[in-house]
Amino acid sequence: MTESFFFSLFFLRALLAGCFLALACGLLGVFLVLRRDAMIGHGLSHVAFAGVALGLILNLMPIIASLLVCLAGSLIILRLKDQGRLPGDTAIGILSSAGMALAVLLSALRKNFSGDLLNYLFGDILAIAPVDIILAIILALLVIAAIIFSYHQLVFMTFDRESAIVSGVPVKRLDRILVLLTAVTIVLGIRIIGLLLITGLTVIPAASALQLSKNFRSSLVLSSIFSLISVASGIFLAYALNIAASAAIIFVSLFLFGAAFFLKTIKH
């Protein structure tokens, strides 16, 4: 009875933190996909992995170390794109490789924490703490606030970046806001989705929403809904079937994408 109670408590924590994280992923994902920055989450997840390894080897809190390294990495990507005149995918690929190489090097230096690294790679819903719920709520509120206060500017720069720059839209500042929020989202998603699959939650629900939405606002709403359904259903399936929550969440999101793609196909 006691064991069941504590497992249920962990389950509720994962569900709460996961739903707020899903909201942030759903909203940010639409901008990332339309800006052709969908893979920035993949690159930052590799950088975050290096931060986790650094935290473990220095006996620091891995999440804090990962957050600091990931935030720095997100700014480096922007700098490479702007001043290095590199395409976005090239800048992401360079930093992604650097992050993974550093993580492999650090893990080779200290072989006794390989088990801990696996938890961060694949997620661990039983590791969800009350502070993770609070951080997920704060992240969701920050994303919502950023979109509300800069909605028209964000939409303008998403669809016509050059005209937005000419019109005086603070494109570089908004770029930094989006990429920093994405970095925080990646790190906070480590507990539930894991570093290897968190990118899927920022990309797949948004791609699903864009199959069905008629305008930009509806794409934001649909992406958030699909993301919430994916996380909630995935955690329920993981709890009921005793499977990995990260895999269940991504498979649900893939199912939703397949359904959305099919509906779009038959409509045309």
Describe the structure.
The structure is a single chain. The chain is mostly helical and 268 residues long. The chain has one domain: ABC transporter involved in vitamin B12 uptake, BtuC (Orthogonal Bundle). The chain has helices at 2-34, 40-57, 62-82, 88-109, 114-122, 130-149, 151-159, 161-166, 171-188, 198-212, 216-241, 245-267. Helix 2 crosses helix 9 (171-188). The termini are far apart. The mean pLDDT is 85.
- Any low-confidence stretches, pLDDT <50, length ≥5? none
The fraction of residues in strands falls at under 5%
Number of distinct helices: 12
Q: How many strands appear in the DSSP assignment?
A: 0
> Structural class per helix/strand content?
mainly alpha
Question: What is the CATH C-level name?
Answer: Mainly Alpha
**How large, in whole angstroms, is the Cα Rg?**
18 Å
Helix residue percentage? over 70%
Global outline: globular
CATH architecture: Orthogonal Bundle
- List the secondary-structure elements in sequence, H or E: HHHHHHHHHHHH
CATH topology (level 3) name: ABC transporter involved in vitamin B12 uptake, BtuC
- Outline the biggest β-sheet: none
Q: Can you tell me the number of structural domains? A: 1
CATH evolutionary superfamily = ABC transporter involved in vitamin B12 uptake, BtuC
Mean pLDDT: 85
Alpha-carbon distance between the two ends:
54 Å
